[in-house]
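Give me the fold.
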Amino acid sequence: MRDIKIETNKFGLYGDIVNNKLKIVYKNKTKVKKWKNDKNFSETYKKQHLAIIKDKNKELLCNFNEGFRIFKFLNKLRHLKNQN
């Protein structure tokens, strides 16, 4: 299962990566976005994990600064949720 769940006091995002679906909840309204299956997704996912395991093809991975930016962004979302 590959799910992404982001909830704040203003909106909610619920992503289902396996089934290619994103549910957006905002002001008591729900919108669902779907996209076609990307056959390269599974291959890219596999290549990223092999790059970690074999210590090769590091261009498939984010560097520390990119990872830290994502971490800070997710923390901002978490703080939005906790403001009320």
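The chain has a mean pLDDT of 83.
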